[in-house]
Design goal:
Blueprint: E1 4-7, H1 17-32, E2 36-41, H2 51-64, E3 73-74, H3 79-91, E4 95-98, H4 102-107, E5 113-114, E6 117-118, E7 137-140, H5 142-147, E8 156-159, E9 163-166, E10 176-178, H6 186-196, E11 201-205, H7 209-222, E12 228-232, E13 234-236, H8 252-257, H9 262-270, E14 279-281
Parallel strand pairs: 1-2, 2-3, 11-12
Antiparallel strand pairs: 4-7, 5-6, 7-10, 8-9, 13-14
Helix pairs in contact: 6-7
């Protein structure tokens, strides 16, 4: 088997040190095993994706000394794949339209809680003759989806750090698979893309560990292969908060424009020599 990894940033802001940490691990794992490393731009968030961020991503990766194999791929050019997957799930009776806003869900006293906060309480599940001319997303009927799995099928995956993990997608509730403002959610798009591109090893942060339970269910429902997962620790700042765009983490672009040596930075990260105040931590 040829090892095939990927780095899949969203062009909604500049890359930071946490992105470099993840990209290096995905790149190096492929290179160490004589495999392929793919760069995929996850740009289907039309309200936040910007072309200038893509240009910066490419410059940052080259600055770090990371090269990718084949052509750059774009989620926005793969919408037909997501539509096909949605059609299959809809035909199986596993999707329903949801008209609720985030405020509606937050205000619902009946909303249960899961690993990532309030779950959708099922307000729109079972609506008769819903008006699809109104803005809506499409949700997976989680209980029904789990219920149609073949008898005896016990979805699981293997993680390089956690070992064998039994999938528990029910903890995520009725997740969104097609958003009101985008043709596919992260859950659906990444699952379909990894299978279509032949990704054998998914190297990503441990903050996405919980999402893998949903991805494993989608693989089972759509008959897709299950890759090996390698959920690595995150980088956190002095206050213990993980580095993130929304928290104002210093960008790689700022380091690059300040004249820092990107290849030297990459070597220090490989050696575990993190900048002062930065530490590797769990989710």
């Amino acid at each position: 088997m040829v090892i095939h990894t990927r780095f899949a940033p969203s062009p909604t802001g500049r890359l930071h040190l946490g992105h470099a940490w993840s990209a290096i691990q995905a790149h190096d794992y492929a290179r160490q095993h004589g495999g392929r490393f793919t760069l995929r731009i996850e740009d289907i968030d039309g309200t936040r994706s910007r072309p200038e961020h893509v240009d910066a991503i490419l410059r940052d990766l080259e600055w770090l000394g990371l090269g990718w194999d084949g052509e750059l791929t774009w989620q926005s050019r793969r919408l037909h794949l997501y539509a096909e997957a949605l059609d299959r799930l809809r035909a199986a009776g596993l999707l329903y339209p949801c008209f609720c806003t985030r405020a509606d869900i937050a205000a619902s006293a009946s909303a249960p809680h899961g690993p990532e906060g309030a779950l959708y309480p099922g307000t729109c599940r079972g609506l008769e003759a819903p008006d699809l001319s109104r803005p809506h997303c499409w949700r997976l009927d989680m209980a029904r989806a789990i219920g149609i799995l073949p008898d005896g099928e016990d979805p699981w995956w293997h993680d390089a750090h956690a070992g064998r993990v039994r999938a528990d997608p029910a903890a995520a509730g009725d997740v969104v698979l097609a958003r009101k403002d985008a043709p596919a959610s992260y859950h659906l798009a990444v699952t379909v893309d990894d299978a279509a591109q032949g990704i054998t090893h998914v190297v990503r942060g441990v903050d996405l560990f919980a999402a893998t339970h949903v991805h494993r269910l989608l693989q089972a429902l759509l008959g897709l292969p299950t890759p090996e997962y390698r959920h690595h620790p995150l980088l956190a700042g002095p206050d213990g908060t993980r580095l993130a765009k929304r928290h104002g983490a210093p960008s790689l672009e700022a380091m690059r424009l300040a004249g820092e040596d990107g290849r030297a930075l990459a070597e220090r990260l490989r050696a575990g020599q993190l900048p002062v105040g930065i530490a590797a931590a769990g989710a």
